[in-house]
Amino acid sequence: MYKYDHFDQSIVDARVAEFRDQVNRRIAGEITEDQFKPLRLMNGLYLQLHAYMLRVAIPYGTLDSRQMRMLAHIARKYDRDYGHFTTRQNIQYNWIKLEECADLLEELATVEMHAIQTSGNCIRNISSDQYAGAAADEVADPRPWAELLRQWSTFHPEFSYLPRKFKIAVIASPEDRAAMRLHDIGLELVRQNGELGARVFVGGGMGRTPMIAPEINPFVKADDLLSYIEACLRVYNRYGRRDNIYKARIKILVHEIGEDEYRRQVAEEFAHVKTLGIDPPLAELERISAFFAPPAFDAADVEPDRSDPDFAVWLDQNVKPHKQAGYAIVNISLKPIGGIPGDATSAQIDMMADLAEQYGFDELRVTHAQNIVLPHVAKRDLHAVWQALREADLAHANLDLISDIIACPGLDYCSLANARSIPVAQKIATRFADMDRQRDLGELKLKISGCINACGHHHAGHIGILGVDRKGVENYQLTFGGSGAEDVSIGKIIGPGFDEDGVVDAVEKATEVYKTLREGDERFIDTYRRVGLEPFKEAIYG
Amino acid sequence: MVEFRYRTDEVTEQPSVTLDAFLDQSNATAVRLEPDDDARALIPFLDRLTLIEVAFPKYRDGRGYSSARILREAGYTGELRAQGDVLVDQIAFMRRCGFDSFAPEASLNPEAVARALSTYDQFYQKAADSAVPVWKLRHG
Fold it and tell me: Does the distance separating the beta carbons of A7 and B122 come in below 8 Å?
């Protein structure tokens, strides 16, 4: 885990003081809501349908038990006793009072946390692989690179008024657990002749024009990284479209001028930027990397006793192999049947912190699928962890199954939404509540967005649902065939939309078609890719 | 009107001309860049310029920040002025990008500007100002 030094702390503390001043000016009426808006938005404070919503950054989704407990404390003291973990590996609080906001941030700063750049047209929180440091297939831990980028992007003076928001993901495995190529910039760490560097993908994204990022550079060396990314951003800042908010993301620029021309412009800018001496020495990456050294693994490699069938199911579904013998990765599902995807109560957050402290080398991760991970749990402790999770209603064995739904807050909270997402997620999960049935369907990533902005990642869902407003009535479009993983693809709309119950029925029919047509170990998406849309369409609309 | 100026030399009296006009009759010493002008077009002429004014028609349009850095990176030492929708909360970023004078459309409170410029004393990145980035302080 990265630890702040006095430089990091002073920057975060200064931000708290600055924001307190801005809020005070607003409350005193010295500035109007219009003038305050860009200021609060630079700090993750949105005015939603019912109240202010505050988004707190969890850099690359990594936190320790002390930070996790602070998130619970904030939910208890400043909100309604719960928080919402997001697809950007952050947490949102839905019921924040403006006058308490600075105090909240001051408390966060005591555990090295903040809400800097969690909104606004700037470089947002850097996201990463939730299994970083634990996955057997990683070439290195991606988090030191993410931290390097976090520092470089924090209050970047040139890139704080970009054409649009800017999201960067860093992974280090061939298996993509972070939807890397659906980011404005995606980095995949790779080794070339023993040297670590990054493949750079630019111009991916979801929203109303989903695109998969093309590879712009196959290998950028560690000590060129910031210069290269700075060049990528400068070309975007200068030439990204500003005439139309819907065409302002970098994916549109890369698409319109073409990846070759964008690559050429970045190369030219990089040749110049590289002369400016903006890259820290490799010693800085080494300093950061030291914080992410593997914990002192020492547990014997014992297989857990599988005699309790419920425990065995959970082991099979939610526990993943660790690179260290004797250890495992535990996924905690925040998707109880009928619950709100990604929500956790203060008590649950505290309990997960306790488990991390007692059994997990004090580490937790937030996933883009809105779940929590304990990355390093000794196999001998798995049963105890499971029992504790079960008592807190957190042992749902549905990771990557149809009820492990990503959903945006939708019209229940969000001022941009056209339709509700949460009730649809609840109805689908309830329809498929039977665990045997879910497990029989296997991996099936279902993702729901309540508007075209696609916060619920519906484009990347094996089954995606997009809520739209049709003449004042909520209507749900269904897409099939999307993926945010290494087999990245964008889902396609299958036909006319449905009402709320109709979309649940259509999903059920699709799963029936899959069960009839699947061959061998095929997942839903494999069958769909093999047979195409027609048989599904026939069953749903026929 | 220039409200804040962080230089000691004389203010240029000559009115600034557009980039196109400057490139046509380049005896002017002051030029004004609009957001979509290419700052690099001025690079051959930097030593004869005493003022480059960068327009910010809307504060959200951040192209001027890149223009400023490009000019400073190319060695421009004359006055670099931000003009237009310049708000108190942008001034610190603008200073870091190399602006040293400000002509905000709506007048700014000098105390608020001073406070904005002194809020942070550590910076993560090397930019166009003299601030030493944190990584350099860490490693010398």
Answer: yes
Dihedral, A286, A288, A290, A292 alpha carbons, nearest 10:
-130
One-letter amino acid at A310 equals: D
pLDDT at B14: 83
CA–CA gap between residue A2 and residue A288 (Å, rounded)? 7
Domains, chain B, with CATH or none: 4-139 (3.40.50)
Judge if A279 and A315 occupy the same domain: no
> Do A253 and A327 belong to one domain?
no
Q: Output the average pLDDT for chain B.
A: 95
In this predicted structure, the answer to whether residue B13 has a pLDDT above a threshold of 90 is no
Residues in contact with A60: Cβ distance below 8 Å, sequence separation at least 6, in sequence order: A89, A125, A126, A127, A128, A132, A142, A143, A146, A147, A150, A170
Q: In a mutagenesis test of the A interface, which of B99, B135, B136 is the best target, namely the one with the most A β-carbons within 10 Å?
A: B135
With CA atoms as reference, the chain A residue closest to B89 would be: A39
Q: Is residue A124 part of a domain?
A: no
Range of the domain at A173: 134-289
Determine the straight-line distance between the first and last CA of chain A, rounded to whole angstroms. Answer: 54
DSSP state of A32: -
Residue A126: inside a domain? no
Tell me the three state secondary structure of residue A229. helix
pLDDT in tens, B33-62: 999 999 999 999 999 999 999 999 999 999
One domain, residues A165 and A264: yes
Residues A506, A438 share a domain: yes
Average pLDDT in chain A: 96
Residue-wise pLDDT tens digits, A244-257: 999 999 999 999 99
In contact, B131 and B125? CB cutoff 8 Å: no
Phi and psi at A192, nearest 5°, equal -130, 120
Interface contact flag, B61 A242, Cβ < 8 Å: yes
pLDDT, tens digit (0-9, with 9 covering 90-100), for A353-377: 999 999 999 999 999 999 999 999 9
Closest by alpha carbon to A128, among A109, A114, A158, A148? A148
Residue at a domain's end among A332, A365, A391: A391
- Are A64 and A197 members of one domain? no
- Identify whether A399 is part of a domain: no
Q: In the predicted model, what is the mean pLDDT of residues A164-183?
A: 98
Count of structural domains, chain A: 4
Q: For position A47, what pLDDT does the model report?
A: 85
pLDDT band per the 50, 70, 90 thresholds, residue A287 = very high
Q: Is residue A116 part of a domain?
A: no
- Residue A361: CATH number of its domain: 3.30.70.3340
Interface contact A155, partner B, CB < 8 A: yes
The whole-number average pLDDT for the span A216-232 is 98
Q: What is the ipTM of this complex?
A: 0.98
Whether residue B65 and residue A158 make contact (CB cut-off 8 A), yes or no, is yes
